[in-house]
Amino acid sequence: MRAILRPLSTHTVFSPIETIVSVFVLGTLAYFHILSGIKHSSFFASSQPPALRPAYARLTNGEWVAVTKHDWVEVWKHPGPGYEALELQQLVFSLDEKSQSVAPLDATAVAQHLVSSVPALSGKPYSSLCHVPGSNASEASCFIGVSEPGSTTTLTLSFKPGTREDWLGALRREQTLLVDGVKYVVDAGKRQESIGEMKSTKWVAYALSALVLRFWELTKKADSLDILVVLTGYILMHVTFARLFLASRALGSNFWLSTGIFSSAIISFLFTLPLCRSLDIPLDPIALTEALPFLVCTVGFDKPLRLARAVMSHPHMLKPQEDGRMKPAGAVILEALDRVGNVILRDYALEIAVLFVGVNSRVGGLKEFCAVAAVALAMDCFMTFTWYTAVLTIMVEVRRVKKVREMSRSRSASITAVKANGAPVRGALSRSNSKQNIAAEVPKSMPQRATNSVIGVKGSFFKDGGKMQEAEENPMARLKLLLIASFLTLHILNFCTTLTPATTNARHLRHPLRPEAVPAPRVDITSPAIASVLSTLAATVSIPAAVEGTEPVEVIVKVAPPVYIHAIPTVAPTVHAANTNTGEAIEKFMSSWSSLVGDPVISKWIVALLAISVVLNGYLLKGIAAGSGLAAMRAVRSQGVRFRSRARSVVQIAEDPEEEKEEHGPAPIVFMASAAPAVAHPVAVPVVEPPVAPTSAPAPPPAVLSRPLNLESIDQALTRLPIRSPAPVEPITPETPGYEREVEVRSLAECVDIFENGPRPVSVALKTLNDEEVILLSQTGKIAPYALEKMLGDLERAVRIRRALISRASRTKTLETSLIPVKDYDYSRVMGACCENVIGYMPLPLGVAGPLKIDGLMYPIPMATAEGTLVASTSRGCKALNAGGGVTTVLTADGMTRGPAIDFPSIVRAAEAKAFIESEEGYAAIKEAFESTSRFARLQKIKCALAGRTLFVRFATRTGDAMGMNMISKATEAALDLLTKEFPEMVVLALSGNYCTDKKPAAINWIEGRGKSIVAEAVIPGKVVKSVLKTTVESLANLNVKKNLIGSAMAGSVGGFNAHAANILTAIFLATGQDPAQNVESSNCMTLMEPTNNGEDLLMTVTMPCIEVGTVGGGTILSPQQAVLQMLGVAGAHPTNPGQNAQQLARIIASAVMAGELSLMSALAAGHLVRAHLAHNRSQLNTPMPSRPQTPGLEGVDRQQFPITPSSSDERVPPPQPAGYAVEAK
């Protein structure tokens, strides 16, 4: 598990902002998923029916008695004498809320309008549909009831059975009525919204009210033991929150640490619910609410707090390392994870294992709770190692910023606080190297002491300068594990049945919350509005019967639900309208904002994130400002370091009215430092300045505290210059005739338009822009400086423009006009192979020594060097070697090496891998995989070495005429892939484990060889030693033993048993395009000299076991270096014998080293070294007079040559000869 979480933590701690934002986005998606489930849950369904049902009443003996719908339908369908059926429809008129100041409504006019002007859907008027009381219906009028005028007026209309819906449908179709200047809007009678259809905060209020009502009903119907257990759980949950706050305060955080831990738990819970839903784990809202406190206690906050303690007590959290640099915050978090991560994972694993026992218990209710708790714990573990570590990284950075601010304030106070006698007062910074003992500080005020006594001292976790308290075993982890086990045991043994369905389901069955078929309520006929209408109707029926002396008719009435009509006056008071316009505008804006945000919780997230972002940015900016202030303060006190001024440079355009009238070229722009002293002089910089070679005149002294030019100000000034000519078709360069007169820089907008909308490809569009305009585009970020070659298509122009960009952005601004050459170079061979961000090329003097006879053939010795006497010295050695017949060379080995480092879980497996590689079967398999990557790679041998659990394998292979580093690296990867199949647990630490060894001195290269191993031999006749080298055979042999062998051994040299082999080898490396850094191992050389032929002649050998050269790839593709190789006859790959060209180059290098060694040793033996350097390496013209040290001494003394210290070999040292020369490179 740690192998999975550790890489995730590594990513999150070094990308904390990205991690936090990503988790918030995923949490938002999870919230929407949960919200959708809540809105469509039956738990929050409305307990009230959506609409009223009609009521039915019968008038019997002057009283209205409720009857069923069947009775009314029987009278309607089968009318008989003495029975009469009708329908009543009430229309409730109410004033709009915005029109409460209008006079009370009078429904009489509206009733007349409805009766006369609103026909039914069938076209019949109301008079033909209404109910007419009494026996003589033709003479009576329709029964209509109108209540008293007021803010709400009720109009009651009567209808014959079955005709009400016909007329009411027409009224609803009309929707609006206009009567006497009053607009009436008919309510459409929409059904009640479900929670899924509610918007804004309405659904939140409804859900909360429904939740409270549901649990109030559950509380009334629950058992006492259940209530006690749940109440205890909620108390423990709040105790857990309090412990989290107190523990965070002990770590020095009042708010942010506890908030981060709590947020991590909430986000884990947000992810847990959708995950449980996808895993088909049932989630009952009632059971989940009962189990929530136990879930919180199960997850707990002890493990995040343990990690926070480890981070806060890290020695390098606020204290720099030994080198003075602060350890990255991510590294601090990872080291803390390494300390306590295994313990945290162990606690999580134990708790999840105990919960899995409950999952497998098959006890209803308990099984679901344990499953949810196990998923929540797993998700909390994942969030602890990812999101929470990112939060801790931010907290570490913020604490460091706060520490810098405190140091800044303390330092400023200590600097300004000075005693009367001038001695500085010791400030708070005097103990900045150690943390303050916060726990030992005594609050000064009574409120602080009271606060600390109640909630503890802030930072009390740290004592004695920030050291961690003695580790005490926290009993909460064991207690929590014990409580979980006890909880499971009680439920399994059925002692406590809070969550079991036997309790929950039975409770719900005994006291159902809402029956499955709850009929909608009927219209209340006893309400005053309806009762008064029914009384009036009864009177209209009974009075005619009493007059006529007949039996009263039994009337059965259907009272339909009322229809609501809103009255809106079309002309409102002026004052009221003026007041409502502003309110309507605000309401419209707020409704638009609400629709934009949509969800209240999302809006809270947005506000919270913005607030956190502002706070963090404020802390970081203040910390940066404090750090800059400290740096400036130290500079002022030391008076030895100058810093740039923060103010921007002032750009002034020199204006000349006469020149403007004559329309001359643009005036120069003058830049002056805003804080420059009086000695600073303004520097005039023209807009376009062609390269000018520097003169020998002394440059003016630089201005003190002057700032570099502000390129943004230059751009702004250039955009204000007049543009009088169209863009040239061909590019204008500094080499164009009349460049100084014709160049005109167009505005940035024009350049961008040409760049983006010009002809394609883009290189064609850029050809229409001159260099200054391309520079302007690059300065504004339109063209990246590293992509100039790709965008322009002209490599030399790209190099020239990059030089200008770098020069103008630098402090000295000399590169653009420097003597570094640019022209006439094949940059196509450089791009993508040899160098990046090219600004020119660096020419070196190329000399030729010799020729030298090597294996019977004459070869010139090319040497690129800036050191005098080196080529001349090598030439003298070539002359002496040629006089003896030349140099004979042998190749003893040819193999480039690569030594990867491989880790194994144990030394046993590492030893098994070593044995496999060294076995015939393993070697054959690795050789096949190794050589499958290239037709030139031929594996020669493998050498293994074991250091603990780490295995080092040194592959040696022929690489043809290439130096072979890339070839062998690719082949080594293939061999390691094969080895991984045999040992899957191995981990390749590095492809190069310094066992090769490359670009570092190492005895293994000297012993085993690397690259080409060459031994060269030559015999120099004794007369040549005397005539050309001006010394004797005995002197050379004696000096070689004492200097090259004994002296190097005394110095502990590795492969350095020579005089100056690196001089000659490096010069040839530079001339032939080899890797100069590989001179470290290639220069390993042993020079041996001994008398031969009875002491008459000198036998000299040179042994170089690791010359790393190639004639293919690398710098050999450059034209000058390739030409040198062609001069030697070794350019490219050999056509018939791969590798022969590179081997021949190694033979030439070894022979040249022999020539240089022979000449230098002769000069040392003859004492000519200093005179040769004065003659060849101390040019009087190139050395300025003031820089030559004047050493006082007696005249004439340096003319005399003194012998070396007397020894047993002094008699054989000849006196110095007046003629000849000797040279040595320094």
From TrEMBL:
UniProt keywords, alphabetically: Endoplasmic reticulum, Membrane, NADP, Oxidoreductase, Transmembrane, Transmembrane helix
Residue intervals passing through the bilayer: 20-38, 228-246, 255-275, 371-396, 481-502
Membrane-topology annotation of the record: Multi-pass membrane protein
Compositional bias (Polar residues): 1177-1190
Classification lineage: Eukaryota, Fungi, Dikarya, Basidiomycota, Agaricomycotina
GO MF entries: hydroxymethylglutaryl-CoA reductase (NADPH) activity
Documented EC number(s): 1.1.1.34
Subcellular location(s) per record: Endoplasmic reticulum membrane
Gene Ontology cellular-component annotations: endoplasmic reticulum membrane; peroxisomal membrane
Family indicated by similarity: Belongs to the HMG-CoA reductase family.
Signal sequence annotation: none
Reactions catalysed, as given in the entry: (R)-mevalonate + 2 NADP(+) + CoA = (3S)-3-hydroxy-3-methylglutaryl-CoA + 2 NADPH + 2 H(+)
Record carries keyword Magnesium: no
UniProt keyword annotation of Electron transport present: no
Protein name as catalogued: 3-hydroxy-3-methylglutaryl coenzyme A reductase
